[in-house]
């Protein structure tokens, strides 16, 4: 075989090889996208109407494509059973009480199945399970609702047309507002007042801003109270002590009240002393008698000093007194050190 | 008496044809075609396999056609995308353009354009080559020299065409999609990943299989028509031209007929 033949054979080989690579890449991309080469489980759902769903359409769960429609078959009583191929790796997230509904990829796009919900209490779905389904939103129903809305809108615009005609003619409150010049003037004044009020509000808010900025000044009492945790704890302690002092003062007051109440009674010594008038009279008489007795005792004592039996004792005392005074006079006077200092 | 003799002669001459001269000729030619095709399947399995000639023909049909077919496919991808945009944009669905061109190119345009371009280039080439060999009695010489001309000339070319047209279809499809992507990228700023995601989202395995099977049938048709027309060309230089021209026209016509029939079969399969 010549070199030229070899070259041709190699080129043809590369050409065919690349074509096969393109085909295989296409098959694998398509298979990967349609989840054909992934382990999957079959889950079924029964609908009354599948709205044009076809085999191969997608199955979505929480916005993620998790499988495709494997089979569609009619059941008795005009129902349709859908078999979905769902990736095995998402099996644990889909619960037995999940609900399948038919949706659309876009307004004019393909139909698909969307699986919603499922509670954590329910077990994960298994191969061959039938999950609940809800009927799809029918386009005819949508159009019917839209038609009803259109009719309502037409009725509303008719009413509004009558209303606006009355307003233009100056009928009713709104018409009067729009046509009466006096009302307009009042409204203008009201707006001016509102403007004034808003200016006042602005001033008040400025003042409030200043005040709050002062409150926020570092070192100020309010700021300290709001920011310093030590002050707060001390204040709390002081308040506790004050509360205790108040409690003590209240107890003291109660005691004083009780004491004063007792003082007002005659059934105790101090109460009798303070409140009993008869006792006061008796005490006064006793004191007078005591004064009289004292005077008489003085006279008796003077008489005793003159008595010969006791005269010697008193003279001895007089002499000792005299002697002490003389000794005091004979001692030299000491200088006053405290003054000098 | 003379008149009666003339009538008898004309009746006899009419009876030489089963239906009519033209229809008989058509059916005779159909019979020749069936025999020609049957001979291909008969010769295919027995040695010698003429591998060298097959590779040569693969090179001529496949590799040499690649630049022309790739360029055509690329331009068709751009033009088709650009012309489809306004229709989809009217519905506000310009985002579905990748899906549309995917379906159109993979299902139909890829195999069909490849086959038509190959019919123009390959079928005419084979027809002219074999026709000139017939005219210059090279085929007769091969028969005399104990070489099987059918095996060497027809089987190798039909086999090469049947193998190379699917390969060319793969290239054309890819290049057409890239042409479409360039146009979409320029107008919708769609990324390559998103584009190919949407392309494969719109098709199924049945589409890929149908495209491949279709291109195999088209390849066989192109090779077989070219070989038949060239192998059975009439004597003279005029016969070469006729063989080349007839190869292209017949091949293209058959390709469209086959496209129509295959489409019906695929749609029937799709509904299962």
Automatic annotation (TrEMBL), chain A:
Ranges where the Mce/MlaD domain occurs: 42-118
Biased composition (Polar residues): 332-341
InterPro entries: Mce/MlaD, MlaD_Phospholipid_Transporter
Pfam families in the record: MlaD
Location of region: Disordered: 319-341
Stretches that traverse the bilayer: 12-31
Any coiled-coil regions, as ranges: 242-307
Record's keyword terms, sorted: Coiled coil, Membrane, Transmembrane, Transmembrane helix
Protein name per the record: MlaD family protein
TrEMBL record, chain B:
InterPro entries noted in UniProt: Permease_MalE (IPR030802)
Transmembrane segments: 61-81, 88-109, 158-184, 205-228, 248-269
Pfam families, per database record: MlaE
Keywords: Membrane, Transmembrane, Transmembrane helix
Coiled coil: none
UniProt-recorded name of the protein: MlaE family ABC transporter permease
